Amino acid sequence: MNINVNHPTASLGSCPIGPINLCVFNYDSLISTALAAIVTLAVAFWIRGQLESGTPTKVQAIFEWGYDLLRGLIKQNVSDDALFIIPLGLTLFLYILVANWLEILPLGFFPVLHGANADWNATLAMGLVVIAVVQWYSIRVLGLRGYLRRFTKPFELPLIARILFIPLNILEELVKPVTLSLRLFGNIFAGGVMIFLIASAGFHLEFLGPVPHSVISTILLAAWKAFDVIFIGFIQAFIFMLLTVIYFGMAREGLEHEPHETTQETTGRMLTPIQEGSHD
Amino acid sequence: MYLAGEAGVIEINGTVVVELITFLVMLAILARYVYPEVVKLAEARQRAVDEQLKEAEKARTEAEAHLKEAQAKLEDARKTAQGVVDAAAKSAEQLRAEMRDKAEEEAKRIAESSRKEIEAERDRALQSVRGEVASLVVAATEKVIGETLDVTKHRHLIDKAIEEVASGDGSR
After folding, report:
1. A189, A206 in Cβ contact below 8 A?
2. d(Cα A193, Cα A114) in Å, to the nearest integer?
3. Which of A37, A231, A256, B56 is buried most, with the most CB atoms less than 10 Å from its CB?
């Protein structure tokens, strides 16, 4: 059995930058992304309406729970005043969640649709945005000197060792958007492949007759979607947001006097340099 | 433009640019129209919840303070009442003792004055008896010796005799 996992493309010609042809577009991904973005915007405006209505609703309670969670994460990992991360974090979470949950739809009927994050192009775009904002934040907090000094971690090593670490630190920073985006892409892509495989496996049950065949296929597919799409989709959206916050926290490394309380402080100041090292 | 092409699973192409723009546009719309409102509401609510918690805490401590105060007042009142009762009992005891003393004194005084009166009466009686006896003695002696006694002349003698008799009586 062959599964075609390639993306259909629309091409406007050939304008390659290195190995990347910027004039070729995976139109299935673009349509899926557009749908996810529209749904995300609709949900966001709906939530705003719910919050503005004044009377507390379930939606409001759930939103506030999530909001407080994100705010707590930012306070704990970054700083009390880094609340500009809230819009980015909420957008990432909501958009990734909606994009992942697109797969709840019976996508067999809409071959052009897939979970929007089942394309590395989509997740890499978000990863690049996150890492770009992280670099900006790091320079703003540490200053250009502090930002460049951060590439010589671990700070407690002798100078020569720190110079040797520079390429590794640069590599680490470059790899961040790649790992961030590949993690999400891999999870969602594999989930989509599994949906296809389970749906296809149903065809081998045709000898049972049409009714048992349909029932068993449906139950299997529903169980898988409940686990992979709803649960893993949620977890991946949360992890993407969590890692974003953590990257912002790491962008502060090397700040002399941490004005905020980190979780590390509870384990004692002495451990902090070691733990900063073990982040990497 | 043609639609026949295919891109590999992890092939990066122009899609990433469109995805980037899409995400940024979405972020911009949300940041412009949704987040200011939502963050404001959520923060306000957060503040309200914090304030309510603080207020509740304050009310609790206040209530505790009131309770303590009330208990202290109650204890105070109990002490005062006990003090009043004690004082009343003491003063009653004192009054009783005073009255008893006064009564005893009065009784003593009455007894004393009675004794004095009796004594005075007795003295008066004795005095009058003495005078009577002296006259009787003069009269009897006149009869016995047949001549008149000069009362003024013998008075001293008679009185002395009576005194001796009387002192003999009084010593008993």
Report:
1. no
2. 10
3. A37
Note which residues in 68-97 of chain B have CB less than 8 A from chain A.
Answer: none
**Residue B72 DSSP SS3:** helix
Query: Which amino acid is it at B81?
Result: A
SS3 (DSSP) at B6? strand
Question: pLDDT digits over A194-215, tens only?
Answer: 888 888 877 777 788 888 888 8
A271 has pLDDT over 60: no
Burial B114-142 (b: 16+ CB within 10 A, else e): eeeeeeeeeeeeeeeebeebbeebbeeee
Contact present, A33 and B20 (Cβ < 8 Å): no
Instruction: Compute the distance between CA of residue A275 and CA of residue A256 in angstroms, rounded to an integer.
Output: 16
Distance from CA of A157 to the nearest CA of B (A): 39
CA–CA–CA angle A161, A166, A169 (5° rounding): 120
Chain A stretch 179-208, residues whose beta carbon is closer than 8 A to a beta carbon of chain B: 185, 189
Q: Which residues of A touch B5 (CB under 8 A)?
A: 8-11, 24
Determine the Cα–Cα distance for residues A82 and A75; give it in Å rounded to an integer.
8
ipTM: 0.84
Tokens of A253: 């490394």
pLDDT at A275 over 80: no
- CA atoms of B119 and B14, how far apart (whole Å): 149
**Max mean pLDDT range (A154-158, A251-255, B71-75):** B71-75
Distance of CA A130 to the CA centre of its chain: 9
Q: What percent of chain A has pLDDT over 90?
A: 47
**Triad A255, A155, A81: Cα angle to 5°:** 15
pTM over 0.90: no
- Tell which A residues from 104 to 133 touch B, by Cβ distance under 8 Å: 119-122, 124-126, 128-129
CA–CA gap between residue B108 and residue B126 (Å, rounded)? 26
**pLDDT, tens digit (0-9, with 9 covering 90-100), for A99-124:** 999 998 887 788 888 888 999 999 99
